């Protein structure tokens, strides 16, 4: 992988979030949790490049996002879809899902949160803002359909400090 400047990354943002199943990781190399995320955004705010991720308070990763100041967002080639399925469907509270995936955890270059050797894109981020989703602000009433248990997400904005990618042009030609 090569290090990229934020202005070098070209990404199909909608496909990245809705088709690629990126993995959010927070904690330290010794104690962390990872989960797949399907909702988020990437762009610029407050003159900084950012990634925005959302995590429900019921998720084990939420505890790590609250405790630690950094996180990573990684994407993987299509061949790792089964491993991503494990990360998305099993809780780290219940066992060692990382071993089950066969993925290799590695130290990130500039943040405490680890990343994965098999990833084709790693975004290393430092939290800079969070906000709880407020259902009273839903203008589109169908949004509420995503919350039958009223377990609204917490939104985290992370400044992108480092990007490592297999290719600067992340076309994400995924068939998923």
Describe the structure in your own words.
- The chain is an alpha+beta fold.
- The chain has a single domain (about 1-170), classed as Pnp Oxidase, Chain A.
- The chain has helices at about 15-20, 60-65, 80-90, 95-100, and strands at about 1-5, 10, 25, 30-35, 40-45, 50-55, 70-75, 105, 115, 120-130, 155-165, 170.
- It is globular.
- The protein starts with a strand and ends in a 6-residue tail after the last strand.
CATH class: Mainly Beta
In CATH terms, the superfamily is Electron Transport, Fmn-binding Protein, Chain A
Number of strands: 12
Structural domains: how many:
1
Order of helices and strands: EEHEEEEHEHHEEEEE
Count up the helices: 4
- Predict the CATH topology: Pnp Oxidase, Chain A
Strand percentage = 35-45%
Structural class: alpha+beta
Helix content: 10-25%
General form:
globular
């Amino acid at each position: 992988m090569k290090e990229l400047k934020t202005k070098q990354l070209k990404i199909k943002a909608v496909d990245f979030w809705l088709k690629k199943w990126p993995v959010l990781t927070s904690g330290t190399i010794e104690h962390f949790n990872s989960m797949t995320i399907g909702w988020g955004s990437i762009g610029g705010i407050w003159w900084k490049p950012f990634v925005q991720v959302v995590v429900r308070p019921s998720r084990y990763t939420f505890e790590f996002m609250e405790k630690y100041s950094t996180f990573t967002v990684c994407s993987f080639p299509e061949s790792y879809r089964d491993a991503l399925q494990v990360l998305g469907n099993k809780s780290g509270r219940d066992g060692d899902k990382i071993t089950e995936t066969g993925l290799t955890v590695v130290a990130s270059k500039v943040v405490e949160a680890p990343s994965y050797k098999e990833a084709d894109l790693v975004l290393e981020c430092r939290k800079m803002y969070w906000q709880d989703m407020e259902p009273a602000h839903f203008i589109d009433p169908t949004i509420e359909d995503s919350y039958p248990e009223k377990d609204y997400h917490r939104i985290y904005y992370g400044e992108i400090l480092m990007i490592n990618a297999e290719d600067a042009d992340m076309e994400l030609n995924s068939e998923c």
